[in-house]
Amino acid sequence: MPRGQIGPVLRQLPSTTLSFKFLIMTRVRFAPSPTGYLHIGGARTFIFNWLYARRRGGTMILRIDDTDVVRNTQASLDSIYEGLRWLELGWDEFYRQSERLELHRKAAWAIFEKGHAYRDFTPASEAVENPTGPWLFNPGMRELTRAESDRRAGAGEPFVLRFRVPRESRQEVVVQDHVYGTVSKATGDIEDFALLRSNGMPTYHMASCADDADLRITEILRGQEHLANTFKHVLIFESLGVETPRTAHLPLLMAPDGAKLSKRIHGPVVSVTTYRDAGFLPHAFVNFLSLLGWSPKNDREKMSREELVELFSLDGINRSNAIINFTAEEPFDPKALWLNAEHLRSLHHAELSQRLMPYAEKAGFAGATPDKLRAIAPLIQERMRLLGEVATVADFFFLEPRSYDPGELIPQKGDAAMAAGALRKSKEILSDLPAFDHATLESALRAAAADVKLKTGQMFQPVRVAVCGRKNAPPLFETLEALGRDTVLARIDFALGLL
RNA sequence: GGCGCUAUCGUCUAAGGGUUAGGACGGAGCCCUCUCAAGGCUCAAAUACGGGUUCGAAUCCCGUUAGCGCUACCA
Questions:
Q1: Which stretches of A248-405 are DSSP H helices?
Q2: Is the pLDDT reported for residue A131 higher than 50?
C-alpha cells in the first residue's frame, strides 16, 4: 500500500490534545475511481483538498472509489499513484472502497429497513424511458409489500436496491455549498437512484456516502459535476441519520474549445504525466493548477507551496469553469510555462542540477553529472521554461557542435575572411592567456577586437558559433570558462576548417 | 426534453452599488546588451444581449442567448 509522506507544513503546526483534535479536526478526501489515467482536473481536485487540509491542520485522505468492478483497471490505479506521487504533496490516510464493501452494504440495508429504500426487480433491459420528462422510477416497484419483496428476493430474483425518494408532498432538498451558495432541488425532480446493484455491489452514491460518514469527512471538495448529485447524497445522509459533510464544489477545467477535457479528443496534454515528462517542477504545476478556479485576490501569481497553504481559502474559489489553454503546436498553457520558468529561476543551483539530471540523461548527454550540471546551471537557468529544454539549451556543453551551417560563423556586415580573422585572433589570444576565467577572457577578447578593428559583436559571433554551434547561446565568456581551454581551441580549429 | 449551475480583455483573474474596470500570461513596441534569455518602460485588449430597481449598475432583480453539469445497476 503506497504511503504519502506528511508534508512539512503539518509538522510545523503546534500539537493539540487528541480529544480537541478529534472535535475540530478537518478531514477531507480525494476519491478518484481507477477507470482512467490521472488527468489535470483530478490533480487539481487533489491539490485543493490538500491545500485545504494543510491550511486547517487537518487530514488528507486518499480513497480509491473502485466499486465499478467492470471498468476498474490496475493500469489506471498505477497511473493515479504515479501522478499523485509526482506532485510531492503526499497524503495521510489511504482507503480502497473495494475493501469496505460490507460497510456500504450494511448502510444500504439499514436504509431499506427504515423503509427509505426498496427492491426493484425490473430487469435492466426493460427500463422505460420518459420522453417528456425525467425518469423517476420503474412502475409497480415502489408499492411492493415487504412480504412480496422478501419472497421474490428469496426466490433468487435479481433486484436493484433503490432509494425511495419522497413523492407524497412537494419538498425541496437544500444544499448549502461553500462555493455555490444555497442550491435547492425539488424531490419531484430526483429519480429513485440505485444504492445496490443487482450483483450486490454498492453504487457510487451509496459507497461514497457510507464512507464519508464512516471516515468522518468534514468537508467535501470535488468537481462541480457532482453538484447535482449532492441532493441525492443529502437524502442518503439524512436517512443514515448522520450529518451531511459541508460541500465545496469546484468549477470544472475545460479544453480551449469549451469542451470537457478528454484524452481521446485532446490527447496526452490532459494527463499529469505529460507535464512531468516535459519537465515541469511539481510545485510549479501545483501553483498553476491552484490558480485555475481559485484566486488569493491579492494579485499574487507565483507562490511557493507554503505560501499557497497560507493563502488558501474556500472563499477564493470561483463559480465559472476555467479553460486551460493549449494547442496542437504548444501543448502547455503559456501561463503554466511562465510559472514553471519562474520557479526554475528561483531554484538553488544544487537542486536545479539534481532535477535536471534525468532530463540530461534522456537527452543523451554522455558526460552529464550533477557536478557538471551544477557548473552550467547559472548559464542555463534563465534560458529554460521546462527542465526538458536542457536538451536544446545545454547540448554543446556535452556534445561536439559539428553540424551547424558555416555561414552562421560569418558576422553581420562581414565575410568569411572577417570570420576567419576573428577566429584566428581569438585562438592566438586564448592560447596564451594565463588564466581562463570569464573576467580575464572578457577583457582579453575585447582588447583583441579593438586590436583588429572589429566591433565586439563581429568578433564574438564567430567564436560563439564555433563553440556553441549556433548564434543564440548563454553569455560567451562564462561559456568559454565552463568548457575549458582545450575544448574551446579545438572547436575554433574545427570552425576554421569550415571557412 | 426536464432539472441545476455559470457568464469581466484571447486566457487566468481583481473590483460585490460611485474606480480612467486593476493585475498576470500571451501579443506589439522601446530601453538594456557580446547573441539569446532575464530585467525595465510603454501600448492594444473585457463587463454576452435586452429590460427593470436606483441619483448612480460589471455589481441587485427579471428575461433572452450561450456554455457546462446531472438526468445509468459510471464515477
A1: 263-266, 272-278, 282-290, 305-311, 334-345, 349-362, 370-380, 390-393
A2: yes
* A225 CA – B69 C1', rounded, Å: 5
- A130 pLDDT band (50/70/90 cuts)? low
Residue A243 has pLDDT above 60, yes or no: yes
A257 within some domain: no
Return the pLDDT at A95. 97
Residues with Cβ within 8 Å of residue A83, at least 6 apart in sequence: A37, A38, A42, A43, A271, A272, A273, A276
> What's the pLDDT tens digit per position in A316-344?
999 999 999 998 889 999 999 999 999 99
**A340/A351 same-domain check:** no
- Answer yes or no: is pLDDT of A81 > 80: yes
User: What would the mean pLDDT of A463-482 be, rounded to a whole number?
Assistant: 96
What pLDDT does A36 receive? 87
A200 touches strand B (CB under 7 A): no
Any domain includes A181: yes
Q: Helical H runs in A367-432?
A: 370-380, 390-393, 416-432
Q: Does one domain contain both A406 and A483? A: yes
Evaluate if the CB of A157 falls below 7 Å from strand B.
Answer: no
Q: How far is the CA of A336 from the C1' of B42 (A)?
A: 25
Task: Please tell me the distance from the alpha carbon of residue A461 to that of residue A471, in angstroms, as a whole number.
Answer: 7
Report how many domains make up chain A: 5
Using the structure block, give the residue that is written with the C-alpha cell 547559472.
Answer: A378
Quote the domain boundaries for residue A150: 103-196
Q: Which residue is nearest to nucleotide B8 (CA to C1')?
A: A320
- pLDDT band at residue A39 under the 50/70/90 scheme: very high
Report the C-alpha gap between A227 and A149 in whole angstroms: 33
- CB of A481 under 7 A from strand B? no
CATH number for the domain that contains residue A381? 1.10.8
pLDDT greater at residue A134 or residue A303: A303
- Answer for A171: CB within 7 Å of strand B: no
The set of cell numbers assigned to A273 is 504525466
Considering the domain architecture, whether residues A452 and A490 belong to the same structural domain is answered as yes
> Distance, angstroms, CA A427 to C1' B13?
55
Instruction: Band the pLDDT of A315: cuts 50, 70, 90.
Output: very high
CATH code (residue A140): 3.90.800.10
Average pLDDT in the A226-241 region?
96
Residue A413 maps to which CATH number?
Answer: 1.10.10.350
Instruction: Return all residues near A136 (Cβ < 8 A) that are at least 6 apart.
Output: A130, A165, A167, A190, A191, A192
**Residue A413 clears pLDDT 80, i.e. is over it:** yes
Q: How far is the CA of A257 from the C1' of B66 (A)?
A: 13
Rounded distance in angstroms from the CA atom of residue A292 to the C1' atom of nucleotide B55: 39
In this structure, the answer to whether residues A151 and A283 fall within a common structural domain is no
Residue whose Cα is closest to the C1' of B7: A320
The ipTM is 0.95
Residues A183 and A113 in one domain: yes
State the nearest residue by CA to the C1' of B34. Answer: A457
